[in-house]
């Protein structure tokens, strides 16, 4: 691949939609582009990726950019760990700067229950080779001078984690996939998925019909509707999340870990010469992506507890985006057992960007019928029909 940070692409109108494909990928965010690249790299031919808007314009456009293996569930730990390895080699593999900053993740505990859960999660991470550790409130304050150590009982720190630039990663995967022969069609909306005898037969878009016997749904917040077209239940609903950016300053701010308080869901990290600030402000599910400052009241109350110097911040900008949520706030990855040829990777509930490289590899292996670095069975959408199989992840915001 040539040295570039933005893919060189033909205008959309100049790209002809093929009449047939081996597989149609629906969704052009981190999941769709990663899967397209990994499938093409595995030798799969005639891949078509369709995106109803522009590449990376859904949940991938406005995430926090965090990359981590600091989870409590072993499956999430493995996905984060594998992705971190891939993020670390992007410069070498693709000659693209994704602005990877491995400043670490700092999770804060303020109750005995949070501390016990954090100790258990850290032990699980260590068993899988993650270099996280429990630290004292005093060390947390040394790592992040904005933090009030007196508010804490303890914290966990994972030094290999950090944050990167989501748009650069999506563009990179898209360009690499195109170089390997993938047809990418932005501004192409899926209108119907035809199946006969529970076998995928074709995908109809606003450009026409594509004969195909396999579909991979990576449509993020829109995945529920795509599933309905194919007769597959994907319990994914969009929920608005908002963040703010402080003004850029000539001297910047102290470099701090990506810091999150489990109790209030308050978080922040460096962003260029400013700070990115947020909190998981409770919202009703729905398609609203309009930004407002309503989240600041909860943010300020949490900041007064955890980091008083960040309360009532001056903001230079803000944005709103979707969390594509599932009932247990964990991903859906798998192949439908009733509709042959229907695969999915969606519902990441805020963790999609950081798990994208690993999921691309995992789904490509699943499609090719070969053993992968882990078994995705726990992430099957069918787990919700078995209450004992619902996933429990403590380190989520």
TrEMBL record:
Q: What is the lineage of its organism?
A: Bacteria, Bacillati, Actinomycetota, Actinomycetes, Micrococcales
GO CC aspect terms: cytoplasm
* Name this polypeptide is given: FAD-binding oxidoreductase
The highest taxon in the source lineage is Bacteria
- Its Gene Ontology molecular function terms? oxidoreductase activity
The residue ranges of the FAD dependent oxidoreductase domain are 22-366
- InterPro entries tied to this protein: FAD-dep_OxRdtase, FAD/NAD-bd_sf
Supply the Pfam families for this chain.
DAO (PF01266)
Organism of this sequence: Nesterenkonia sedimenti
Ordered alphabetically, the record's keywords are: Oxidoreductase
